[in-house]
Structures are given as C-alpha cells and as structure tokens.
Amino acid sequence: MTELRIGTRERERVVRSLMRHQGMGRLTAQEYQERVARARAAVVASDLDGLLDDLEAPAEPREHE
C-alpha cells in the first residue's frame, strides 16, 4: 500500500519539537541541523520516523483557538 504524502504542517510540527529539544540541550547544533533537514525533506510520514524517538516528549505549547 502506498503511503499518503504529508504536508508542511506535519513537517513543521517535527521541526518545532526539534527546536525545543535543541534549546533544552538535548541535541547538538549539528544533530539539530541534520534532523531539521530530514524533516523538511520528508514526503511521507515514514520519512519522519526516528527523528524524535530518542528524545523525551517536551510539553507541547498550547495552540490558540
């Protein structure tokens, strides 16, 4: 079965999470840059696999309704 494509929203959600982790010192600048590049190049959901797996889930900022 073919995977559905993802959009900018899904990619940027991962990038924002990576940014928070980098700000907490959990990623080096190089690790952050590499993961962000992979996230922004993602086409299907499985392309995002592994980018956050080794990081604790930070509290998600609340979205304005």
Short summary:
The protein has helices at 8-23, 29-41. With 65 residues, the protein is mainly α.
Structural features, described:
This protein has 65 residues and is mainly α. It has a domain at 8-48. The chain has 2 helices and no strands. It has helices spanning 8-23, 29-41. The longest helix is centred in the first third of the chain and has 16 residues, at 8-23.
Shape: globular
Helix vs. strand class: mainly alpha
Q: From N to C, what is the helix and strand string?
A: HH
> What is the arithmetic mean of pLDDT?
91
Low-confidence stretches: none
Number of strands: 0
Terminal residue distance: 35 Å
Give a quick account of the main beta sheet: strands, pairing sense, barrel closure.
none
Task: Provide the helix percentage.
Answer: 40-55%
Number of helices: 2
Radius of gyration, CA atoms, in whole angstroms: 12 Å
What is the percentage of strand-forming residues?
A: under 5%
